[in-house]
């Protein structure tokens, strides 16, 4: 199934405990971190706007507020449908041309689409009743296309530059972009909501975070253009092992790993978007709605966003903690126990949500702590399943197929279950637990990858 490339390139540098062949540690950290920070900033500002602004702005003709919200989340899910296509497109070039150039292209695709969202007229604008939602769908698709290639490239940038025994630690750097992006995006929304009237925010204020992402993209491009290609890909080139059609080869030689990686990531994605999107909707929904929508906790929007930010601080802390834990105990053992905890967590949603402010804040802290512990090692785990010459494509396809199953459907299903349970989150918690059980089975069937031959293993 695999052949070995030259085993000598990069070994000396690895033995000295520093990133091999040219990319300083600080540059690797910043370049992998800033890209995913921008990525998650872009996605969080869309997720927040999809909850707070877009239902009325782009779907004013929907039958009721619940239908408006479902329509908004349906567009939210478009990006997750596009992500597997992006993984194939950018994965092809990542394994053919190299990690660096592909990362630059994916960042540009995602960044331009985000800025354009900030320029779309509302559906109430004359002549834009149909065009506005259609352009929103197109931009959202392009966001997903870019993101389909972004995460895998950032993960490889970190792990393929890591010294031996530190791949999981280096892999937490791109993962840390998720909590950073969340805090940045929601701090911007809180500032705007505090500075503007509700009418000003709904009319034009929501556009500022989308337009401001252009600054972050420029900074990200500047950092990434200064990088050298990763040692692992250079060794693939030196061994003349570059795959002509990486997609065909990875499905021919590593299809089992794609299936495994997809389900290993499933609970992570479900937890991720339930904690960030569903909890926001449930938290700010009125306790006694008069418009037919399901009941919620009745928090003020800004108050609940601050509660989320407190939870996300724990997300960031335990993302960093997860790297050393995955190195010490192994990726598989670490994730098995965290996934068991996620299953149990799904069973305590109702008691915690019903326990007042302290219970709700505790739920957010526990959920985001588990999020950090399960999300942190993924930048090492998924790439380690695949040989170097199809690693970009394989890890990207697995990651993004999981996004469709675990994240694209999660907000939509959660709102539906919430309405079905007459305003109770009990079914949403059961849904999360079910996703955890599926991931647990996938982990039990997979091997440990901590000690795989990372640089020299290529598919035949």
Automatic annotation (TrEMBL):
CDD domains: MFS_ShiA_like. Pfam families: Sugar_tr (PF00083). The chain crosses the membrane at residues 43-62, 68-90, 102-122, 128-147, 168-192, 204-225, 258-284, 304-323, 335-358, 364-386, 398-419, 425-445. It is a multi-pass membrane protein. Residues 28-450 form the Major facilitator superfamily (MFS) profile domain. It is found in: Cell membrane. Residues 1-14 have a biased composition (Low complexity). Residues 1-21 are annotated as: Disordered. Keywords: Cell membrane, Membrane, Transmembrane, Transmembrane helix, Transport. This is MFS transporter. It comes from Promicromonospora vindobonensis. The lineage of its organism: Bacteria, Bacillati, Actinomycetota, Actinomycetes, Micrococcales.
